[in-house]
Amino acid sequence: MKIDDVRVRVIGPDVTRYHWKEAMPDQFMTGTLVTITTDDGIEGTGLASTYTSFDFDRSCAESIRQLIPLLRGQDPLDREGLWRAIQSETLPTIPGAPSAVDVALWDLAAKAAGLPLYRLLGGYRARIPAYASTPTFPTVEEYLDRTEQLIAQGFQAVKFHAYAVLDHDIALVEAVRRRFPTRDVAFMFDPENHYTRREGLRMARVLDDLGFTWFEAPLNDFDLTGYRALRDAVDIPILPAGNWVTDLKALREYLTAGAWDAARVDAATCGGITQARKIMALAEALGMTCELQSWGYTLHQAANLHLMLALPNCTYFEQPVPYDSFEYGMIDVIRPDANGHVGVPDAPGLGLRIDWEAMRAATILELP
User: Fold this and answer.
1) Hey, which of 11, 220, 306, 322 would disulfide with 118, CB 3.0 to 4.6 Å?
2) Do 209 and 90 sit in the same domain of this protein?
3) With contact defined as beta carbons under 8 Å apart, do 161 and 20 qualify?
4) Is the preceding peptide bond at 322 cis, omega within 30 degrees of 0?
5) Does residue 348 fall inside a structural domain?
């Protein structure tokens, strides 16, 4: 079996746009879709979501353009060899480029084996709890009303992206706890790396007192000293954003140095499933969870969900809400059941059917 064709489709649909802190413009969510086809007709698909402020992002696809010659004619089952072959030896590649390729290769391999991807990867469980991951809403009252609706739908955990303005954020989390005083729903908070060290410490103490489950991305992920000091000062678990430190060796240094209470990466941006499962194994060896991200289009979510189902050391699936913008171009989607858990169809590969007509309608660039 050999790789016969590699196609790249960039989708930029007209969907509702969101942002994740007060100073951020509404974001253009681009989907870079890679389809790898073998000479005997098996197809694998992977997608990376990227976010930009003023127009759709074509840079990920242009990076993949340079990888296509390295893939054609190769055995698609040689995933480790191909993953190493497409790594840049000069300047860093756009993170989604090797990720989308690698996810497509894993999807193809699982289809060739006739297995759902999570079973090929390990098959630890069939479902996992989900937390609703919000964008920024205009008012505290809207956050509270939305949270009420999410809990009524079955969510047992909610993560808030808010204003990244300390006083506004404190007002929000205190209002959340007043509205929902019992501890039967888990709450998390993420200010998108935007606080100073002093602000991060103040918010960490507030969240600790309020019984939040974790505090995510208070500081820039590279601030090792700041994170260690923050962890020493509070009991609430501290997590990184997970988009910046994705190299395996660098992560080992951060985790062993005590920067965070858990690892956090995204298979669709850290280099693919091949890299993410190594990071999960590293975290497991250090006695930590790896709380995978999955903020993006459904196929982006699916790559991370299959890893969460395959391996034991992830606590929650990140379910971006409101749903509709993230589900563009799909027949099958990922949503929690009445108990707040998610799974995937028991079909080979990623297991989700794509609405190719919708994908074509939203295509803004196609390669080759």
Assistant:
1) 306
2) no
3) yes
4) yes
5) no
